[in-house]
Write a structure and sequence with these properties.
mainly alpha; flat
């Protein structure tokens, strides 16, 4: 089980040791997949600096250090230029 799924399980208040039906697992997978979109939106808000990092973190229910990390990753990606596959 990936760390993202474990985090989502703990966030939802469920124990990772408990068996879940397929509907629950599909729900968790969808949340994990949509997380990348959330990361991008949060990072853009932080780069635009319309609000403080603490305000952005509170609005999106993430830790302020996570917002800073996503912002840094996006800036590094933008400076390096998107890599294209073969």
């Amino acid at each position: 089980m990936s760390n993202e799924v474990r985090d989502l399980i703990s966030f939802l208040g469920r124990s990772p040791g408990v068996k879940h039906d397929k509907g629950d697992l599909n729900e968790l997978r969808k949340k994990a997949q949509s997380q990348s979109g959330v990361q991008g939106r949060v990072a853009l808000k932080a780069i635009k600096a319309v609000k403080t990092v603490a305000q952005i973190a509170a609005d999106n229910h993430v830790h302020r250090l996570q917002v800073t990390q996503w912002k840094t990753q996006m800036l590094e990606w933008a400076l390096a230029g998107p890599q294209r596959g073969p």
